[in-house]
Predict the 3D structure of the following.
Amino acid sequence: MYQKKLQEDIRCPLEYGLGVFGGKWHSRIICVLARMGTLRYNEIRHEMGNITDAVLTSTLKDLIADGIVLRKSYDEIPPHVEYSLSEKGNSVVPILQNICQWSDIYYKQEHKNSLKFCRKCCRS
């Protein structure tokens, strides 16, 4: 995993939060796991649709490092790994739902049509 040379200069709690769940794929993975529960890698990839293996692997590692996602490995052949949201990860879901609802309201005002709900974590 990429290691930054300098420590991030975070001066606001919002910056920390957006750094943890604000990425394009971070929030979508959180929403998939919130809706579907514990999943294996290929199940997450299938739900995500257009994500590459490299990006999914990297994003899962980031979410695990931030304590948002739990990774459980089973000592079996073939290897069996499952991913689920931690308590910290579950606490983010209502925030993402609110952002989703807010975005739909203001997108309608600016573009005269609605966004299609992804139905991963948004309440329709």
Remarks:
- The longest strand covers residues 69-74.
